[in-house]
């Protein structure tokens, strides 16, 4: 939001206070989820327990979301927003008030009165958040501060808390489109109520510079895997892997999804659907090859697996494939045995799509969600691959041993 130079709500009391804090907690959860899905949000530092005036640098509309996700809900933070922009139309006004706890501050006269209306709320322990630069600065530099925020803090007798925000200019550039980026919020040490605009500006600039200089360490292996998964080769590779597994290849497509979707979580759905398509097409081919008497190699399968599948097909027909996601028997065994038993193509296509879709897509999306949540730890992607490979090897060994 274009910040106010300088705030009206009154200090919450009783039921009103509880409602304000509940709304603040819900807003914090909402924006934390949104920013997590768009790259992640990190916070360092905390607000003091008393009411305070928060001053921050301003380069993007996403700054408001970053602060609402990072600041303590118990302060029920209210965000000062430019009256001539965010309150110029009914829909903007509703969005600003409900999703950002915004209040109007005039930039062309009367703004000081808008701010001073929040003195009692500050004394009651709330936080008022202001962007003293008065507007967004897309160059990444911190401009000069207007004095309204400091006058408000001095009148209320509460500290001024400097905050540096980085990453929002990449997440949502001024006049640009939303894209993936990690947002970092660093909360500094409180300044006294008598701090000057220059002192507050210098504190915010120092925090902003430190936060921008921080780099999120990454794994070279993750970057290479993500580059392939995000390229045009990603979906064909997932399709080919699953297609081959449905015929003979011993490694299930979920292993590939565990590798690729964690490295490139935003491609999880595309890769999962590609793997599903490969499984279904491969399963159809396996059905017809087996019906024609062709026996393809099937490593890591056992006679007991084939006997179990034959019994299930005899009792349930094509619907027997619904057991495959849970019993550990490879999909290629179901495809081959279905062909030998004369299962119809249409029935097999419907049941196999349902069974494989339930497992492949859900597993791929779960890995993608895990990749998003663990984005800040992506430097450990190599360790993750070792654990994934070890767990897969152990699990496969136990499954094969159990079906001997």
TrEMBL record:
Where on the tree of life does the source sit, at the highest rank? Bacteria
Residue ranges annotated for the Phospholipid/glycerol acyltransferase domain, each copy included: 52-168
For this entry, list what GO says about its biological process.
phosphatidic acid biosynthetic process
Indicate yes or no for the key word Nucleus. no
Q: In the UniProt record, does the keyword DNA-binding occur?
A: no
What GO CC terms are in its UniProt record?
Answer: plasma membrane
What's a Gene Ontology MF term here? Answer: 1-acylglycerol-3-phosphate O-acyltransferase activity
Q: Which Pfam families does the protein's record reference?
A: Acyltransferase
Q: What is this protein called?
A: Phospholipid/glycerol acyltransferase domain-containing protein
